[in-house]
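Colleagues,

For the teaching module next term, I've prepared a clean inverse folding example: a structure given as tokens, and then the sequence designed for it. I'd like students to try predicting residues themselves before seeing the answer, so please don't circulate the second half yet.
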């Protein structure tokens, strides 16, 4: 008996000694409930001493790991509830029970950015950490498509753009670490140049957010942000992922900390890489669909007194192939390929990326200064510089294949100044953008050189009356567009069949008002209603106005219209939120009228023959449009181990002038999954998912080359486990997509004319945090 007691005492002394030697290895855990003892999901638990943040799970449980001994100030914040602050003494107090009372929305809706909520009446959705882990190796758009109402526009299986309520490209604004992302986003096959590994939080706002973010945000906003740095310790993570389809992998490493001699300085460095070979459908290899990426980023944060400084830099570099089957030589070939619906040639697996291909490099640098004048009054200033270099290669008959067919360099400078005081904000922002087509390609650029100047001023205010919370904003923008380039005159063809070119010069002025009005009503702890009416606008982009040439990335010939007018969109979103002890439901109903909606439509009666081959023609047109639809998400916690999730979305888009439908509008879709969580860790689970996408039944046969593809069902499975190794943890994720290896096409894939979607794919990932 005494021997066992002696062994127990020895173990306890070792444990105490270990804690004494490692004072910052403690865990603070507990439960957060409301005043009716019901668990609260998604409460932000923040240790203000080191800015570490976690969120409560479906049982209201939280764990703040790697905490230091001594007194810590911890806040508990949740939209609609009064913020709770506690001074905790570690290791004496390690398990807490926090009760939160219903309050008003304006009391510090704390997020990982550490600021007050700026979207109290908007439909705002964030991507779960669990989902990010499962889709780490995927493009940004595919990750975001796991949110109800968000889909993707594909060019094959390796290029994807996010679509919010049926709108994409220049109508969806991306904020990359607080900077408006500016690349060649006008192209339907130009994917966002953002590395998902740099984002600790990904959010989608489904509204016309033209006031806060400026022109172009007709469909919504995607926000990518990073957690603040804890300079008191060195920490980091390593991600390694592999996939069977494409026989490739992704790696990421991140390291952050501080400098002891500069206690208020935090630093972070990060790098990721990707290499994937030719992808494969159920029955054949997709030739030339490999991807290579190398991305870097660095962040410095410094605060002293009333001053907060932030320096950020990122580089995104990718080299990706374009499916061979989209580039053919004759009219008969293209029509035969469309009728066949699959490539006429067979391809072998390879990691080589040949022409046609894209090489894209995007550099972003920003400096941000926040000066606290007094209390809640702050002056924010941010300057950002971006450089986007896009090269598109094709098979060439005269020059080397290493010479790009298109070489575009876009440089963007932005300056934002804002004054925030409590619930009020006024600001001014400007943008200077220069696009140059680099000479030496031997081809006429698809878009001309241009200078783009923008200036905007805005004001936003929030008001709170008990359970009601309102927001009102207004903005004015001016845009000056100066263009110089070449255009074809198909009415003038010489005896050799060569089309005459003429010099194009043009100057356009665009200006417009934007506005927003919203209301949120917390009827009870379970029910919340939000309504938001937004007015936003968008000037036509250079390709919509002036394109006249082969778009090598997509294998299409595009023709713009210089007479296009600005789009103006009125979007009304109503959100109904319900949350009980075990059920959470979010419903978004929306309607949007867009005057002068611009779209590219296939012209079935026309193809364009060039020296490179024969390509389908897409013309830019403009009509008044009406979009409406509904997004639904239901989360049901069946018991402590089992849960069920259902997501559904439908969107309708009508041409009000011709009483018909627009092309490339997402079909109705349903996502559902059932999850079994084993053990006490939230990372230990097995999830089976089902995806149903209906056939697009609302289309105009006169504006497409073929009928929309059939509906399809996909089944996916995911498993996750957290493995403790030497006081550290490794998270393991296993996924199987398209379990039954279904051969299918998606209406939102611009390559559906020539090929099918990717077949079964098995992924295995490891994440090590230290």
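(Answer key — instructors only)
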């Amino acid at each position: 008996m005494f021997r066992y007691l002696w062994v127990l005492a020895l173990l306890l002394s070792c444990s105490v000694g270990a804690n004494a030697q490692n004072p910052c290895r403690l865990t603070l855990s507990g439960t957060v409930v409301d005043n009716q003892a019901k668990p609260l999901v998604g409460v932000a638990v923040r240790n203000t001493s080191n800015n570490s943040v976690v969120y409560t799970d479906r049982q209201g449980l939280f764990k703040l790991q790697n905490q230091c001994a001594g007194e810590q100030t911890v806040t508990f914040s949740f939209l609609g509830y009064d913020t709770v602050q506690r001074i905790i003494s570690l290791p004496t107090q390690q398990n807490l029970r926090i009760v939160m009372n219903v309050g008003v929305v304006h009391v510090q809706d704390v997020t990982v950015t550490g600021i007050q909520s700026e979207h109290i009446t908007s439909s705002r959705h964030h991507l779960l950490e669990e989902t990010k882990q499962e889709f780490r190796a995927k493009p940004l758009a595919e990750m975001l498509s796991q949110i109800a109402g968000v889909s993707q526009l594909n060019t094959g299986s390796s290029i994807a753009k996010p679509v919010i309520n049926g709108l994409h490209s220049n109508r969806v604004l991306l904020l990359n670490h607080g900077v408006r992302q500016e690349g060649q986003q006008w192209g339907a096959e130009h994917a966002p140049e953002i590395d998902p590994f740099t984002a600790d939080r990904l959010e989608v706002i489904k509204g016309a957010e033209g006031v806060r973010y400026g022109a172009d945000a007709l469909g919504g906003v995607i926000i990518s942000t990073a957690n603040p740095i804890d300079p008191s310790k060195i920490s980091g993570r390593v991600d390694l992922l592999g996939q069977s389809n494409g026989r490739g992998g992704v790696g990421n490493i991140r390291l952050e900390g501080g400098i002891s001699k500069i206690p208020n300085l935090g630093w972070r460095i990060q790098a990721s890489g990707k290499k994937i070979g030719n992808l494969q459908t159920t029955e054949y290899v997709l030739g030339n669909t490999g991807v290579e990426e190398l991305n870097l980023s660095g962040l410095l944060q410094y605060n002293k007194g009333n001053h907060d400084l932030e320096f950020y830099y990122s580089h995104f570099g990718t080299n990706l192939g374009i499916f061979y089957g989209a580039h053919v030589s004759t009219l008969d070939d293209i029509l035969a390929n469309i009728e066949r619906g699959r490539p006429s040639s067979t391809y072998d697996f390879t990691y080589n990326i040949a022409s046609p291909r894209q090489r894209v490099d995007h550099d972003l640098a920003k400096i941000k200064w926040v000066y606290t004048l007094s209390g809640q009054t702050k002056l924010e200033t941010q300057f950002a510089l971006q450089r986007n270099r896009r090269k598109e290669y094709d098979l060439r008959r005269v020059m080397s294949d290493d010479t790009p067919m298109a070489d575009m360099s876009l440089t963007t400078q932005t300056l934002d100044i804002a004054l925030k005081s409590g619930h009020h904000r006024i600001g001014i922002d400007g943008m200077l953008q220069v696009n140059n087509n680099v000479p030496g390609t031997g081809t006429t650029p698809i878009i001309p050189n241009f200078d783009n100047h923008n200036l905007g001023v805005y004001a936003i205010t929030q008001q709170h009356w008990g359970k009601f919370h309102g927001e009102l904003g207004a903005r004015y923008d001016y845009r000056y567009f100066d263009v110089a380039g070449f255009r074809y005159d198909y009415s003038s063809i010489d005896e050799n069949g060569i089309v005459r070119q003429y010099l194009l010069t043009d100057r356009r002025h665009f200006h417009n008002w934007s506005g927003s009005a919203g209301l949120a009503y917390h009827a009870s702890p379970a029910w919340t209603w939000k309504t938001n009416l937004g007015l936003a606008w968008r000037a036509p982009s250079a390709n919509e106005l002036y394109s006249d040439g082969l778009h090598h990335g997509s294998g299409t010939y595009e023709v713009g219209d210089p007479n296009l007018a600005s789009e103006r969109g009125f979007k009304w979103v109503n959100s109904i939120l319900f949350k009980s002890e075990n059920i959470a439901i979010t419903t978004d109903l929306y309607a949007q009228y867009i005057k002068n909606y611009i779209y590219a439509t296939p012209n079935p009666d026309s193809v364009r023959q060039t020296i490179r081959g024969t390509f389908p023609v897409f013309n830019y047109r403009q009509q008044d449009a009406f979009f409406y639809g509904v997004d639904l998400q239901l989360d049901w916690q069946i018991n402590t181990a089992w849960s069920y999730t259902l997501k559904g979305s439908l969107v309708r888009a009508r041409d009000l002038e011709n009483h018909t439908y627009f092309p490339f509008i997402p079909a109705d879709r349903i996502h559902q999954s059932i999850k079994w969580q084993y053990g006490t860790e939230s990372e230990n689970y097995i999830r089976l998912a089902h995806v149903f996408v209906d056939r697009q039944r609302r289309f105009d046969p006169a504006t497409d080359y073929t009928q929309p593809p059939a509906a399809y069902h996909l089944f996916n499975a995911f498993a996750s486990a957290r493995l403790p190794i030497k006081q550290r943890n490794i998270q393991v994720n296993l996924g199987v997509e398209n379990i039954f290896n279904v051969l299918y096409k998606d209406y939102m894939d611009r390559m559906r004319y020539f090929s099918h979607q990717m077949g079964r794919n098995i992924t295995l990932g490891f994440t090590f945090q230290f």
